[in-house]
Design brief:
Helix content is 25%, strand content 23%. With 360 residues, it is α/β, with parallel strands linked by helices.
Length: 360
């Protein structure tokens, strides 16, 4: 009798634990707009750890595939990537511990991930320190233009309005500007700048944002290194580059003097399995008296540190509400969302991961 009772109690506990677990997963809500008239933009963090290990490639492919599936449901109009597309720009022998793919394979891998969005939605990818030199910005040579050429995504090409130059004075999409009108007719200029832009690049960018043709546009700046985890503008990083300008200098020389830069996005920062070390946010005012909302978002050392899975699939969904000023930010992982066993982990809801702000 005692044995039967023990079996019954054990079965009862298992049943209720199972019910609680499935109840938790059944409460999962997939991403959805809070207003059917909103549109959204996706922010992808640094992909470098997804592509330096061949085993992680499928996670980045999953992320871009998910974006492709959500273009209509979430009214996705733009995708931005914060840079460090690869771990090393030009190594010929993989290091093993820090990646098992040579640089050519890494570039092919990240381009392959973005292939899933070609012809479906415009995207802009910044360049980070790891996208230059040999391992990390020993110089300003990059393979970016070879693997992300002008004709890779016709939808991005159609928005291209301005092309800057690389350190050798050659036209390069590492510095470029794209014009976009949202469903309400509000005009945006997406300005992407190379990692730690040199003085000539900042002078070009300043000239672009001051053009009369863009005076009424909302300018969105995308660059790699800008804020640290203390929400401060990065002052210096010690890379041996010609005339580098990090976050503080970019703010002082370009963003603050502007009258139309209202959003800045960046990546770059992180620490092993520390969510807070990967993000930053601050609000300042530009010379035109407009608020400048500045967001850093990364995830590359989550999911096992620098040699882990690449970032647990985290990305950000920015919903632009129909009032033309409110943006809702949510942090989501398609990787956790694909299985009922992990769907309860698919949202990060702390106040620095789920919040709203307004544009002037």
């Amino acid at each position: 009798m005692k044995s039967i009772l023990k079996i019954w109690v054990f079965s009862f506990i298992l049943f209720h634990l199972g019910t609680e677990t499935y109840g938790q997963n059944n409460s999962y809500q997939p991403p959805a707009l809070t207003d059917s008239n909103s549109w959204s933009m996706i922010l992808l963090p640094d992909p470098q750890t997804y592509v330096k290990f061949s085993r992680n490639q499928a996670i980045f492919d999953l992320m871009t595939s998910w974006i492709g599936e959500q273009i209509d449901p979430l009214h996705i109009k733009m995708v931005l990537c914060t840079g460090d597309l690869v771990e090393q720009n030009n190594i010929w022998i993989p290091e093993g511990k820090n990646g098992n793919q040579v640089s050519i394979e890494q570039w092919r891998s990240v381009a392959k991930g973005f292939n899933k969005l070609d012809g479906k939605v415009p995207y802009i990818a910044a360049t980070g320190n790891h996208d230059y030199g040999i391992k990390s910005a020993e110089n300003r040579e990059t393979n970016y233009n070879q693997y992300f050429p002008l004709d890779k995504n016709p939808l991005s090409k159609a928005l291209l309005k301005e092309v800057g130059y690389d350190i050798d004075g050659k036209p390069s999409l590492t510095n470029a500007a794209y014009e976009f009108s949202d469903p309400k007719g509000i005009k945006y200029l997406f300005l992407v700048l190379e990692f730690a832009p040199h003085d000539g690049t900042l002078a070009w960018a300043k000239e672009i944002v001051n053009k009369p043709a863009y005076a009424q546009h909302r300018v969105v700046l995308l660059t790699h290194s800008y804020l640290n985890a203390k929400n401060e503008h990065i002052e210096s990083e010690g890379y041996k580059l010609q005339n580098p300008n990090y976050g503080k200098a970019v703010w002082e020389k370009l963003v603050k003097p502007s009258k139309n830069i209202v959003l800045v996005f960046s990546g770059h920062i992180g620490a092993p399995d520390d969510e807070r070390a990967h993000i930053g946010f601050r609000t300042d005012t530009n010379a035109g008296g407009k608020k400048v909302q500045q967001m850093t978002f990364n995830a590359q050392a989550l999911g096992g540190g620098w040699h882990g899975n690449g970032g647990d699939g985290w990305l950000r969904i920015l919903e632009f509400l129909p009032d033309g000023k409110t943006i809702k930010v949510k942090t989501f992982s398609p990787l956790f969302a694909i299985s009922p066993a992990t769907q309860h982990l698919a949202w990060r809801t702390k106040d620095y991961d789920e919040f709203s702000f307004e544009l002037d």
